[in-house]
Amino acid sequence: MSTHPWSGEPLVRLADGTVKQVSPLTGTVVWTVPGRANRPLGVPADVLRAVDPAQADRLCAFCAGRYRETPPEKARLVDGPDSGPVVLREVPAEALDATVARLRRIPNLFEILSVDYWRTNHGFRPSVDVVARAARYTATPAGRAHVLAILERRALAGGVAPTDWAAIPEAERLTRAVDLFAGSHDVVVPRRHLVDGARYDDELAGSGTMTPDEHHAYTAFTVDALRDLYASQPHARYVAVFQNWLRPAGASFDHLHKQLVAIDEHGPQIDRELARLRVEPDVFTTAVLDHAAAHRLVVAENAHAVAVAGVGHRYPSLEVYSTSAHQLPWEHTAAEVRAVSDLLHALHAATGVRVPSNEEWHHRPPDAAEAMPWRVVLKWRVSTLAGFEGGTKINVNTIDPAALRERVVGALHDLRRQGAIAGMLLGDECSHRLGVLRYTDPPA
After folding, report:
1. Band (26; pLDDT cuts 50, 70, 90)
2. Could you tell me if 180 and 214 lie in one domain?
3. Is 196 a member of any domain?
4. Residue 437 burial (C-beta neighbours within 10 Å; 0-12, 13-18, 19+)
5. Do 409 and 298 share a domain, yes or no?
6. How far apart are CA 398 and CA 383, in angstroms?
7. Cα dist. 385→11, 22, 397, 403 in Å?
């Protein structure tokens, strides 16, 4: 019987070049066989279509020319008259076109967990403020028409016949309006569908085509939405934050957006991590960041965050860790949020807009006692799980962490020379210090 040296260590390269990994957090087993890391990754565009400039902001329901095709927004970020961007809340229907929203926070029309879920299973009741906001919005003809159109769309999608919906008195239909304002599944949508000046419809605006300042605003706006969902949904134990980019990664629209979904449990991954932290509180330091430093898997770093090529992921994955003593994203200082955003933006820019990806935020649930760092994982969805993976639970990943690190660091050097990313150390410039995470420290 032949043997090889792999015995469950996080990262081992065999004599033929095969790399075997096991996630130190989840136990996921991943193999990478030689010769596949350099193949093209991007999804080729279908037939290119020229862009009509008059329709460039009307390409999907998230576009700026179609504000009324989404539920009433909760907030928008606009350019202020004097002091930079400002956040507007409770914009009435009549004023939707009065400003251009750089970012919008809107309820997801087709929620994963509906208001009725929270109402039936937890006795949830919308707050007095939410009920009053729904009443104010629908008190005007434009607001009432907007809400009724959205309610009709939701009802018809749910199987209600058009004639049955039309037969319901308007006053009765409007009683359902409050659920559009009380939901806890939100979407954060930037302005652009295509890059400014795009000539063809494949010139998509992604996270990496933003400027570092624009991406920071996007990140900070999402952090604010995260904090608000915890405050407004008292039965939420966790709020999942994620971004699906392109249809192979689960996106319904090719328009960039993040989603925030409140759920009434932590989910299996967080529960496993909390159990591990109770035994080994510094596991993220020792098993992840120190391991990455020792194996030269650090991609980039700045004053408050570090990015590494992840070990033990089903897909090629990059991880950004906040090195702050703060744990919850909204507890971070502005500089600390900016640091995470800058590294994440750079990784998106290095990835490119043609690579399908999932961006996943991970943070300590507020009701958990265990310390956990805020981290973001960027997964490249460049392969399809199939029968081999399902039958063996061994995942075949096309790019091993070292090859991923080299590929991304090279792209980041080019982007830095172009001035397209914020200042940061790259690859071998990084400190590779051990013990850089401070999440177990008491905040200053």
Report:
1. confident
2. no
3. no
4. buried
5. yes
6. 7
7. 21, 17, 9, 21
CA distance 362 to 11: 23
For tokens 């199939």, what's the residue?
386
Question: Mean pLDDT in the chain?
Answer: 92
C-alpha closest to that of 260 among 326, 331, 183, 315: 183
Tokens at 189, concatenated: 């949508």
**Terminal CA-to-CA distance of the chain, rounded, Å?**
57
Burial class from Cβ neighbours inside 10 Å (0-12, 13-18, 19+) for residue 265 reads: exposed
Do 311 and 291 touch, CB atoms closer than 8 A?
yes
Q: Extract the tokens encoding 243.
A: 């971004």
Tens digits of per-residue pLDDT, 255-271? 999 999 999 999 999 99
Stretch 184-198: mean pLDDT, rounded? 95
The CATH number of the domain holding residue 402 is: 3.30.428.10
Task: Tell me the HSE value of 191 on the side-chain side, using a 13 A CA sphere.
Answer: 15
Average pLDDT, stretch 134-144?
96
